[in-house]
Amino acid sequence: MEISTGERHSASEPISQKASDGRKLGEYENPSPNVLQRVVFKHVEHNVYLVADAYRGSRIRQTIDDFFLAASGSRFENVEVGGVNLQVLGGADVITFIGHNGLMDFKIGSVPAKKDDYEREAVILACASRNYFKNGLRQTGATPLLWTTNLMAPEAYILHDALEAWIAGETNEEVRFRAAAAYSKYQRISQKATEGLLVTGW
Fold first, then answer.
1. Is 34 domain-assigned?
2. Residues 98, 15: contact at Cβ < 8 Å?
3. Most buried residue, 37, 59, 98, 181, by CB count within 10 Å?
């Protein structure tokens, strides 16, 4: 999943059709061999686009490879929707991975190093993602906006509230607080516990 600002036009479960803060611009089935569905949204108030790809569960290794390629600026893809050309993957401001932490099951090969001077941020909602993705993410040069310290349920409402804070220009700590509040509400656990689970930065 990628999100980008209008200045730089620019995941792992079926994509929800409900997006209260976004207007759906397009929906595409099987846009690539690894991806079952792609949905493109534009925020209703801000010039921000979100491109969400639902990867096939059997392609988890390729999903993680694509995440690191995008985070490093090693791979770009153009998506044309509604007369707008969006440069996604490495062209996005925030690169997101949501789903099963495949790095608990296997090791990947070499992770690409940062390819350009563009500053990208990453959100990784998967079990203990900071422990497993840290070395690879550091290699890509991307900054961790939000990731996790322990087992968790990687659900879309966490990303929704985190990105709303990011779009509003809030600090990384405020992004983390908003995400933790959403997780606390839906999982019915304390805010203190979720703030220990969802963290920002290195």
1. yes
2. no
3. 98
**Is 165 a domain residue?**
yes
**Distance (Å) of CA 152 to CA 27, 47, 101, 111, 149:** 29, 31, 10, 25, 9
31 in a structural domain: yes
Q: Is residue 114 part of a domain?
A: no
Question: pLDDT tens for residues 79-93?
Answer: 999 889 999 999 999
Cβ distance 136 to 113 under 8 Å? Answer: no
Segment 153-202, tens digit of pLDDT: 999 999 999 999 999 999 999 999 999 999 999 999 999 999 999 999 99
Number of folded domains in the chain?
A: 1
Distance CA 119, CA 91 (A): 10
User: Which two tokens mark 169?
Assistant: 């220009």
- Give, in order, the Cα–Cα distances in Å from 200 to each of 61, 138, 144, 167, 182: 25, 14, 6, 16, 16
Instruction: For residue 22, give its domain range.
Output: 2-109+119-199
Burial class for 132, CB neighbours closer than 10 Å (0-12, 13-18, 19+): buried
Please choose, from the candidates 124, 135, 117, the residue with its C-alpha nearest in 3D space to the C-alpha of residue 200. 124
Residue 22 has what pLDDT?
80
